[in-house]
Amino acid sequence: MNEPVLQVSGVSVVLDGESVLEDISFSVRKGEALAIIGPNGAGKSVLLKALLGLVPSQGSIMWAKGVHIGYVPQRFHPDRTIPLTVKEFLLFKSPAFWRPTKDFFAHLDHELSIVGLKKEILGHHVSDLSGGQFQRLMIAWAMTGHPDVLLFDEPTAGIDVGAEETIYSILHRLQKERGTTVLLVSHDLSIVYRYSQHVLCINKKMICHGAPEDVLTPGDLKRIYGETGFYHHHEDPTRTT
Predict the structure, then answer these.
(1) Where are the beta strands (DSSP E) in 16-68?
(2) How far, in Å, are 57, 87, 120, 132, 157 from residue 77 at the CA level?
(3) How many CA atoms lie less than 13 Å away from 232 in the CB half-sphere?
(4) Residue 231 pLDDT class (50, 70, 90 cuts)
(5) Where is the signal peptide (predicted)?
(6) What is residue 163's DSSP assignment?
(7) How many Cα atoms are found within 13 Å in the side-chain-facing hemisphere of 140?
């Protein structure tokens, strides 16, 4: 059995004197997909930032030795007043920024092809991309260093359903073909069922953790979202067939 890529024990986060997360514990193994769900304000984005050391936390966060992490933040919007090409945008990520080589550009072309973008897009301005194209670009950007783990904070927020399906298909392909470990925040329970092996349910505290079909009971969904709670689903998340 694979050793855990990530082990989290008793993690809490206090920001500006307010408890944002309390006593969160879970682990993720190589090649697994973990979905993180919860209502708005539950602390999902803060948890990803804590895992990356971007916000102070208490408790234990242990990444496997030598693990390389890619991260796509929530609703990243470039300054559209700056005439930045896709090529320039991607080079900012790379240690080859000052002296990019032919091998680097060949690698870049490959990563773009993985997310369904042609190399001609390198000459386009970032401001001209659609929402779906930009999200695919962000995935390619996160992949340029061959990360072992990819963290996605609502990767399909604000894009249409067709583009949304493409994004999740890309993440699933990376998981299957490269053994990439994926942690993603999502409000769409049908996506959780289709693409994740485990789900972490939080509302500032941990409510449930395990296989979606085992832990996403009607009772737990009520505890997570309340009587009139908000979540997306393209199919009944509590169906038994």
Answers:
(1) 18-29, 33-37, 58-63
(2) 27, 17, 22, 13, 12
(3) 15
(4) low
(5) none
(6) H
(7) 28
